[in-house]
Design a protein that fits this description.
By secondary structure, the chain is mainly α. The protein has a domain at 123-188. The chain contains 10 helices and no strands. It has helices at residues 3-18, 23-35, 39-53, 56-68, 72-84, 92-104, 108-117, 124-137, 141-154, 159-170. Helix 8 runs antiparallel to helix 9.
C-alpha cells in the first residue's frame, strides 16, 4: 500500500478525534482502515458507529471483524447484543452471522458446523450458496464451481455469483503465491 493511504488514514484519525460522533467521518475512516487491513482500527471505527446508531447490519460486521482480529470474547458479547435486540440464540440469523464470520477468518470446520445447524431452516439456493463458500474456503474449487454454475443458470447477471465462479476458475491454476486462506482473499 502506498503512502497516500497511510497519510489519508492519519488525516481521518485526526478528523475522528475532532468529531467522534460524525457518522460520515467515521464511515470514511472505516473505509481506510479496511483498505489498510487494520483490523483493530476497523473494529474501533465499527464500535463507534454501532454505538452511535445501533445498526443491526453493522453489529454483524463488527462481530466478523472481532473474530478476524482474534477477539473472540468481544465477538461473543456482540452476539449477546443481537440476542437482546430480538434474535433467538439458535436462529438462522445467528448461525448465518457465525458462518460469515468464520468464512472471513477461514475456519472451514466451524463453517461446516454452522451450515449443518441451519440446514433445516435455509432455502435450497441459500444453502447451496453457503456450501459453495465453504467449498471455496476449503479449496474445493471444482465442487464450488459446480454449485455456482447451477445457481448462475437461474441468475445470470448476479455479480456475486460471477465473481466467486471466476475465483473458482482462477485459483486452482494460479502461479502466484497466496497465503493459505487469507481472510480478505475470498471477499467479494
Amino acid at each position: 500500500m502506498d503512502g497516500h493511504y497511510l497519510r489519508a488514514d492519519s488525516l481521518m484519525d485526526a478528523a475522528v478525534e475532532k468529531t467522534p460522533n460524525d457518522l460520515q467521518v467515521l464511515a470514511v475512516s472505516l473505509g481506510f482502515k479496511n483498505e489498510l487491513n487494520d483490523l483493530d482500527g476497523e473494529v474501533e471505527r465499527l464500535e463507534a458507529i454501532v454505538n452511535a446508531t445501533g445498526n443491526y447490519d453493522l453489529i454483524e460486521t463488527l462481530y466478523s471483524s472481532l473474530l478476524a482480529a482474534g477477539r473472540v470474547e468481544e465477538a461473543e458479547r456482540q452476539l449477546l447484543r443481537l440476542e437482546m435486540m430480538g434474535a433467538a440464540p439458535d436462529s438462522q440469523e445467528i448461525h448465518r452471522l457465525r458462518f460469515s464470520a468464520f468464512e472471513r477468518s477461514c475456519r472451514a470446520e466451524a463453517m461446516a458446523v454452522e451450515l449443518a445447524a441451519m440446514d433445516h431452516t435455509v432455502e435450497e439456493d441459500m444453502r447451496d450458496l453457503l456450501q459453495s463458500s465453504l467449498d471455496m474456503v476449503s479449496e474445493r474449487f471444482t465442487d464450488a464451481a459446480v454449485i455456482l454454475e447451477r445457481l448462475l443458470a437461474d441468475r445470470p447477471t448476479d455479480s456475486f455469483l460471477c465473481n466467486n465462479l471466476a475465483w473458482c476458475y482462477a485459483l486452482p491454476a494460479r502461479t502466484w503465491s497466496v497465503p493459505k486462506c487469507s481472510p480478505r482473499r475470498l471477499r467479494s
